[in-house]
Amino acid sequence: MASRNDHVVVIGGGYGGSQLCTMLQKNKMSFTLIDARPFMHHNVAAVRAAVVPGFAKKTLIPLEPMFGANFKLGRVTSIDREAQNVQLEGGESVHYDTLVLATGSNGPFPNKLSEERLESVTRERYDRYAEKVKASRTIVLVGGGAAGVEIAAEISALYPDKDITLIHASDQLVRPGLAPKIQKRILDVLSGYKVKVILGEKVKDVQDIPESEACTIVTDKGTSIRADIVIKCTGLEINSTAYKDVLANVVVQNGALKVDKHFRVEGIDNIYAIGDCCNIGDPWMAYHAIEHAKFVFDNIKRNSKGSTLKEYKNPSRDKGGMIVVALGPHHAVGQMANGFSLPEFVIKKLKSADLMVGRFWGQMKQKPPT
């Protein structure tokens, strides 16, 4: 049975990791948060940072002011399960009694950050990108998931005269499982913005499309479009660098870790995985990472008392799950976990106005920059 004084190490300061550490801190539990960046990237708001020059600073929330000495800046290179240590770049070692992997996923800029570690460099990169979007006349977005839809709406709301095309390989935007009336509302708003939507066509050689240069894209159906800039909103990959070698026997094909119904890595009682890097089956969204963190926090407490762990159940998954989609500052759609739609005025207030900047800076006990 674990001791009440167990030390919890959390790798990854994104939505799930930060939520978990906030709860550990509030309950005066011993923990260390490790991240290769000094900030949490609020990438829900990256769709606006990519379009509005100067907005990026609101998406980078410093971790140290919130967690103080419990935060350690560093890149994890390996995990020693026998000694229960996490090894950092440079040779430092951090001991754990309980380890939580919340390493998230990587993907193409501007929706995700891969290598950037400095806040100033990240801000400058976003601002250059937003200026490129501003200067572009013809814009193509590849991928009609939530991020692609939201960026298309952001650009169109700010620059209504631009020629914008959204191409999606599926015949449904955002994701399957959304209520038909929500799908229709998304298409109606995009149509009102004069965004051209092409469904059921896959762009060829997406990986070869340059980040912010003019090029011609071609789909598998023969559609060809010359664009001043192509924004890639596809190709997310799980960030498995910290664990892929030592936990290779429990890593599935896409890089996620096999977990049981308690979120413990299969066969290992003191290592959990949450968010995008676990194979629990939820969509890769901030909402689910946060819910996973809450669930695992409760099980860590239960384990410390020798109580039976809870089993995670999500009966709403077949109904599409909880999701809110901002369609620029003035429109939105939302669906509850039970499949029912949310009133648009609620979602606009919750997300569209500031893309939850105020909420997440407040959660980290800081005020967003003006």
Main features:
single chain, FAD/NAD(P)-binding domain, 2 domains, five-stranded parallel beta sheet
Overview of the structural elements:
By secondary structure, this protein is α/β, with parallel strands linked by helices. It has helices at 15-26, 46-49, 64-67, 119-135, 146-158, 180-192, 286-304, 344-352, 357-363, and strands spanning 8-11, 31-35, 39-41, 60-62, 71-73, 76-80, 85-88, 93-95, 98-101, 105-106, 138-142, 163-168, 196-199, 215-218, 224-227, 229-232, 237-238, 271-273, 323-326, 332-335. The strands form seven sheets. A five-stranded parallel beta sheet has the order 5-2-1-9-18, with helices on one face. Strands 13-12-11-16 form a four-stranded parallel beta sheet, covered by helices on one side. It has a three-stranded antiparallel beta sheet with strand order 6-7-8, with no helix packed on it. Strand 6 (76-80) and strand 7 form a beta hairpin. Helix 1 (15-26) runs parallel beside helix 7. It is globular. The chain starts with 7 loop residues before the first strand and ends in a 7-residue tail after the last helix. The mean pLDDT is 93.
